[in-house]
Amino acid sequence: MKEKRLHIALVGNPNSGKTSLFNCLTGLNQQVGNFPGVTVDKKTGTTSLGTILAEVIDLPGSYSLYPKRLDEWVSYKVLINQDKDINADVVVAVADASNLKRNLLFCTQIIDLKVPVVIALTMMDLAKRKGIKIDIAALERELGVPVVAVNPRKNKGIVELKKAIGLTAQQVYKVPARDFIDNKSLAETSIENIKQHFPELSDYKAIHYLINHESFDFNASLQETIENIEIKNKFNPTKTQAEEILQRYSRIRQVMQQAVSEPDPLQKTLFTEKLDNVLLHRRWGYLILLAVLFLLFQSVFWLAQHPMDWIELGFAKLSESLSSSLPDSRWTDLLINGVIAGLSGILMFVPQIMILFGLITLLEDSGYMARISFLSDRLMRSVGLNGKSVMPMISGFACAVPAIMSARNIENRKERLLTILITPLMSCSARLPVYTILIGLVIPQTNLLGFLSVQGLVMMGLYLLGLVMALIVSYVAKWFINIREKSFFILELPTYRSPRWNNVLPTMINKARIFVMDAGKIIMIISLVLWGLSSFGPGNTMQNLTQQYDQMKTQPGAAIAQLDKEYHTAKLENSYAGIIGKSLEPAIAPLGYDWKIGIALVTSFAAREVFVGTMATLYSVGDTDEGSLLLKEKMKAAVKPDGTPVFTLATGLSLMIFYVFAMQCMSTLAVVKRETRSWKWPVIQLIYMTALAYLMSWVVYQIFK
User: Distance between CA atoms of 52 and 255, rounded to whole angstroms?
Assistant: First the structure.
């Protein structure tokens, strides 16, 4: 039986092939969680090294041992042995052979930490196409650690890599005795003073203790000791870092001369460069970008529609089956309208989440995702965001839940938070049923210029309104969010490659699992609460209603079906949810709404599309094939106590505007809480979006009434 006892940390620059290598090593033996205390994903898996079952930890990509982003700090603390939960026996440093000079900076820093290291050279085929020749034996000799060429996409070099890892773990390959550069000369006295307290440290690790000790879990006495060493020796972190980088690149240049043969830089242009001349063109680039985003947007709608319908139909049939087979009781109602309805609300999002992240994975693997961020950075930066914010925002047109989850790739905390706060302003697919029925109610079926549908223009206007307001809100909010963190839009444009199709499905499954297990718990609780509010009322109200309608059903010639509809309407009106709706009526009356619309606003917090179902129940519309048509007729005929229509042009437009801006999605709030690890920002989001919705709806109603 294999014993799980070896821990391997996988590190490397972004876009170096690290994730491909991780997938190749671990296959389907993967788990996704979170690093303790942060929202950065932790991917772990197992691989076989002969008789040893080793755990592989895929650490976030880093360019150097001087972290700037949250995910880089995660990798840094593991490498510096300041992570209590992860202790790596061997570090596999992944280096892109086609861009070796830059990758060697990070690799040599890790080597100087005096930890067991194996270098995995990826993209050797790309290096060959560039005319780059690498003498691996010479590179090993210069670095002092094993170097193995691998191609994870074709499963080449994996056996050799595993062998090198095993020998390194057994100390057959020893840690190099000499430093890659003369680290001690960078701050000799300070290093010696630090090593008096930490004799096991390498010279280079001692430098990091001097620079970043405030972020380490040291007691107050030890922190003070290190501070005193810095002060006594006049240690300058910035100067030390700068000198180190200069020395490393000088030494790396020597290594490259010994081990690497590079072609004349004026040689033929690569395919990637030729393609970028088109895709990053000052005019054509933006047109192509719009076309790609349009296809992405439409694909999520189109591909997710049938699975969502199947899920909805499946739960409807399940509810129908349980309703007919179980006795009529409060527990049956809880099961069907509470638990089953809650599960349906959770799983309905899964197709969109899986499809969206599957398509994004393909864009990332192909290399185009970085180009999207590059093209949109100028506009985004003017409102406090950066180019990486555009994909979550565009994804928000499908569903805010996966869109907010995709904001994790934004390094700057302020820009990431701003993106999370404004993404729900994008009109998601859940708003579509609301827009459709309200536009059909109050907007005439006429054309402009003979071919432009007014109803279609109004629909497009609602989507554009959400986008414009999101940019405005971001511009205003950036002055109030006090996160002082420098923003650098450092973006590497990777080479274009064929997507890894075997990586798409695991990514889709992992994202769906994260949503169901984390956000799903909160959605279920909220669904059960809403069921309780809709099913119970004060005192004996519900019992009296039941007795009243039971008596009416016993009367000769009673229309049982109609009485059932009226009974459910009366129950809802007299429930706690109905009471809340009526209590809201004075507040929402300036917007043109009555208490029934108030109930719909409350129930819509479970999901915006619930508006249509709530109105159908309130207006005693059953589930028929012509349900939507009947609902429109009933809503058109609805009048206020003074005899005026409820749904006028002013009321309809006001309600549409409310749904554009209001935060009526508990699942989104749940995901925001998960991503920010605090209820502060979901509450702020709920307050500002509700206030914005109320104000704009009031303005529209006053203009058109």
Answer: 34
Least confident of 176-190, 386-400, 519-533: 519-533
Residues 6+ apart with CB under 8 A from 222: 197
List pLDDT tens digits, range 139-179.
999 999 999 999 987 888 999 999 999 999 888 888 888 99
- Which CATH code is given to the segment(s) 3-169? 3.40.50.300
pLDDT at 35 over 50: no
Count of residues in the chain: 705
Instruction: Provide φ and ψ at 96, rounded to 5°.
Output: -80, 115
Pair 127, 134: CB distance under 8 Å: yes
Token reading at 309? 């319908």
Taking CA 478 as the corner, what is the angle to CA 477 and CA 482, rounded to the nearest 5 degrees?
105
Q: What is the largest CA-CA distance in the chain?
A: 103
413-422 vs 666-676: helix axis angle to the nearest 10? 170
Phi, psi of 6 (to 5 degrees): -105, 135
How open is the CA angle 376-380-385, to the nearest 5 degrees?
Answer: 130
d(CA 251, CA 586): 75
Q: How many helices (H) and strands (E) does the chain have?
A: 32, 11
Percent of the chain at pLDDT > 70 equals: 85
Residues 223-245, buried b or exposed e (16+ Cβ, 10 A)?
eebbeebbeebebeeeebbeebe
DSSP 174: P
CA 322 – CA 647 distance, rounded (Å) = 37
CA dist., res. 124 & res. 537, Å (int) = 70
Judge contact between 685 and 663, C-beta under 8 A.
Answer: yes
Kindly report the number of other CB atoms within 10 A of residue 222's CB atom: 15
> Are 507 and 370 within 8 A, CB to CB?
no
Structure tokens, 145: 């650690």
What are the extents of the domains in the chain?
3-169, 284-477
What's the rounded Cα separation, in Å, for the pair 134 and 143? 14
Between CA 450 and CA 632 the distance in angstroms is: 26
The number of C-alpha atoms within 13 Å of 424 and in the hemisphere containing its C-beta is: 30
Contact of 150 with 20, CB cutoff 8 Å: no
> Closest by alpha carbon to 349, among 528, 607, 604, 603?
607
Return all residues near 163 (Cβ < 8 A) that are at least 6 apart: none
| Contacts of residue 585, Cβ cutoff 8 Å, sequence gap at least 6 | 593, 594, 595, 598
The answer for residues whose C-beta is within 8 angstroms of residue 446's C-beta and 6 or more apart is 453, 454
Instruction: Kindly tell me if the per-residue pLDDT of 434 is higher than 90.
Output: no
Which residue, 26, 18, 29, 38, is CA-closest to 85?
A: 38
CA dihedral defined by 28, 33, 36, 40, rounded to 10 degrees?
100
The model's pTM: 0.60
User: Which amino acid, one-letter code, is at 609?
Assistant: E
